[in-house]
Amino acid sequence: MALIVQKYGGTSMGTPERILNVSRRVKRWHDHGHQVVVVVSAMSGETNRLIGLAKAISETPDPRELDQMLATGEQVTIAMLAMSLKSIGLNAKSYTGGQVVIRTDSSFNKARIQSIDESAVRKDLDAGSVVIVAGFQGIDDDGNVTTLGRGGSDTTGVAMAAALKADECQIYTDVDGVYTTDPRVAPKAKKLDRITFEEMLEMASLGSKVLQIRSVEFAGKYQVPLRVLSSFDNENDGAYDDDFKHNVGTLITTESETTMEQPIISGIAFNRDEAKLIVRGVPDQPGIASRILSPVGDANIEIDMIVQNVAADGTTDFTFTVNRSDYKKTLDLMQQIGRDVGAREVTGDDTIVKVSIVGVGMRSHAGVASQMFRTLGAEGINIQMISTSEIKISVVVNEKYLELAVRALHTAFELDRVTGESRAQA
Ligand code: ADP
Ligand code: ASP
Ligand code: MG
Fold first, then answer.
1. pTM above 0.85, yes or no
2. Model confidence at 322: pLDDT above 60
C-alpha cells in the first residue's frame, strides 16, 4: 500500500464529465488499497476570468482582496470532486488551504508555503477517506487567504506530498509527460521518460509551464518522487508496481539515478513574456549600473538578462529584459532615470522572446554555443542578447522567429530522434 498525492490541473477539471473521469481514476487507486490525496486546480479559464473581473473594478486590484477572490476557483473544484467521489461510493472530504492548515507568508499573489499541518488529513486517510485539497492557496499568520502564484497548484501537490512523506507526487495534466520542448510549438517534440531535477528546474525557470518552478525546487529539497503524466489516458489501473514506476509519464530524478549516457541537450524552453529596455550613451562611471537598475528593483520589477556594452567614447549602453507585463512601467521609469543620468536615448522592444537550450550534458561538451548560434544564423534569425550558465544557453530573438528557432534547434541537437526508451533503462 502506498500513499499517493495526485494533482489535477485546470483542463483535467474543466467540465463535470472530466471531473467524473478524475474520480474514476482516484477510485482505481483507492481500490488497489492506496491512500490518495488529491490536489486540484480551478476549472480551466476560471482564474483568468476572476482576474478579469478584478481588473474591471481596478487596474491594480488590492493584493489581499485579489487572493480572497482567486482562491474561490479552487474552492469550487474541491467540492465538485468530493461530490463526484461520493457519488461513486467513496468516502471523500474536501479541504481549503486554510482548513488543512497550509501556512504561508503574507506576500499576497505570490505567497510561499512555510509549513503544513498534515494531522487532520492523515486522520481522514487512516479512516479510509480520500482527501481533496485546494491547490494554489494557503493562509497567513493573521488568517488572510493567500495564493501561491500562477500554476501554484503544482507546488501545493508537492508540498502536501513532502508533508505526508508520500511515496509519489503525480502531476496529471493535458500532456502525457515532460517533452523535449512544448509539443504545441514543435510537433516533433519527444516525451522524456526521465529528466533530472536540475534540468527540470532550468526548463521551468526558462518558461516551460508544465511545472511551476517552485514545485520543482520543493521536490528537490524534500526528495519528493515527482512524476508528470496524462489525465486523459485511462490505461493505468492504479497498480503502483514496477511496470508503472518505469513506464508511465516522466519521472523527475536525481542525476545519479540516470546512468544512461546523457544527451548533450535534454530540452528547449522558451518564454514569450519578455520585453527589452535599452539605455544608450550613459557616462561610463562607477555606480552607473546601480543608478539605472536599482530603481527598477525598488519598483518591484524583476530584471532577467543584463548586458552592458564596452565603453567607446566614455559612454556606455545598458540593455536588460523584464517581464512583458512590466514593460510600460519600466519604460516610463527608464525615461525618467535616463534624463537624471544624462543618457542619450532610452528605447524598448516588447516583441522579443527568449529561447533556451538546457542540458547537464553541456558541462562536458565544448562547441554547444557555437552550434546553437550557427543553427539560428542559418535560418536568418538575428540574436539580440545571449546569456549562459553551466547547463543552459539563452538567446533573445524577435518573437516572429519563436517557432522557427525552437524547431531548428530541436532538429540541430538531434532531439527529433530521442526515443523515450533510449533514456528509460537506468
Ligand atoms: P495544468 O492546467 O494541468 O497545470 P499547464 O497548462 O499548466 O497544465 O501545463 C501543461 C502545458 O505545458 C502543456 O499543455 C504544454 O503546452 C506546456 N508545456 C510547455 N513546455 C512543455 C514541455 N517541455 N513538456 C510538456 N509540456 C510543456
Ligand atoms: N488556478 C491557478 C492558476 O491558474 C493555479 C493552478 O492552476 O495551478 O494559476
Ligand atoms: Mg499548470
1. yes
2. yes
